[in-house]
């Protein structure tokens, strides 16, 4: 149980306890990006779109959303993604590198649980960048990674529930909503 203010529509706050907390928390709590940072988010469902909103709030300058679903990509763009990529139309790793001047993104987040997308998310980060995994593939799933990419300083980590303490984080998301900086009403049909 998390206490929330009475003046905010309760029906908008329900998703904060799971998908929104997970996506937004991965960006805000796990990474603390600086203004101007770059991020690529694989998956434009409720978790991925919440990560897009968090990237906007934290001041990321390059926010890339990757998804097979044109509807999700449309919402990502509306919510502040600077670039959208459909992997059926172009290689997402090459597209991310093109957008980031050949370096790759500082952060990548895989939200769908798709192992191919996870590999692409890892390959999309720059040297000294970090990939977070919050999508849940089937138990026992394995993935092959480029060992030299990791030796050069890239990091891969699992993130559970956005590294959030719900009693603290959910009220902060509610406050962002009240300030008009986290538009839950606009995203309700997706979230």
Architecture overview:
41% of the residues lie in helices and 17% in strands. The chain is globular. The chain starts with 9 loop residues before the first helix and ends with a helix. The chain has nine helices and six strands; from the N terminus they run ααβαβαβαβαβαβαα. By secondary structure, it is α/β, with parallel strands linked by helices.
Order of helices and strands: HHEHEHEHEHEHEHH
Percent of residues in beta strands: 15-25%
CATH architecture: 3-Layer(aba) Sandwich
- Provide the CATH topology: Rossmann fold
Secondary structure class reads: alpha/beta
**Strand numbers in spatial order across the main sheet:** 3-2-1-4-5-6
Uncertain runs? none
User: Measured on Cα atoms, how large is the radius of gyration?
Assistant: 16 Å
Quote the average pLDDT.
93
Summarize the main sheet.
6 strands, parallel
The top level CATH class name? Alpha Beta
Helix content: 40-55%
The count of DSSP E runs of length 2 or more, i.e. the number of strands, is: 6
| Count of separate structural domains | 1
Shape: globular
Q: How many helix segments?
A: 9
Question: What attributes characterize this protein structure?
Answer:
single chain; 191 residues; alpha/beta; Rossmann fold; six-stranded parallel beta sheet; 17% strand; globular
Briefly summarize what is shown:
The protein is α/β, with parallel strands linked by helices and 191 residues long. The chain has one domain (16-133, 150-181): NAD(P)-binding Rossmann-like Domain (Rossmann fold, 3-Layer(aba) Sandwich), CATH 3.40.50.
């Amino acid at each position: 149980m998390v206490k929330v203010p009475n003046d905010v529509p309760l029906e908008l706050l329900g998703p904060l306890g799971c998908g929104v907390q997970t996506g937004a928390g991965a960006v805000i709590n796990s990474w603390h990006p600086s203004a101007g940072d770059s991020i690529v988010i694989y998956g434009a469902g409720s978790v991925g779109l919440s990560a897009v909103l968090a990237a906007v709030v934290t001041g990321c300058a390059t926010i890339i959303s990757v998804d097979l679903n044109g509807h999700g990509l449309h919402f990502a763009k509306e919510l502040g993604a600077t670039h959208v990529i459909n992997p059926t139309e172009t290689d997402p790793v090459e597209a991310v590198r093109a957008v980031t001047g050949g370096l790759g993104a500082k952060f990548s987040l895989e939200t769908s649980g798709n192992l191919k997308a996870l590999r692409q998310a890892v390959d999309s980060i720059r040297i000294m960048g970090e990939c977070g995994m919050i999508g849940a593939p089937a138990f026992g799933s394995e993935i092959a990674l480029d060992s030299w990419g990791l030796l050069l300083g890239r990091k891969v980590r699992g993130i559970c529930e956005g590294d959030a303490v719900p009693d603290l984080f959910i009220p902060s998301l509610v406050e962002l909503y009240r300030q008009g900086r986290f538009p839950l009403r606009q995203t309700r049909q997706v979230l």
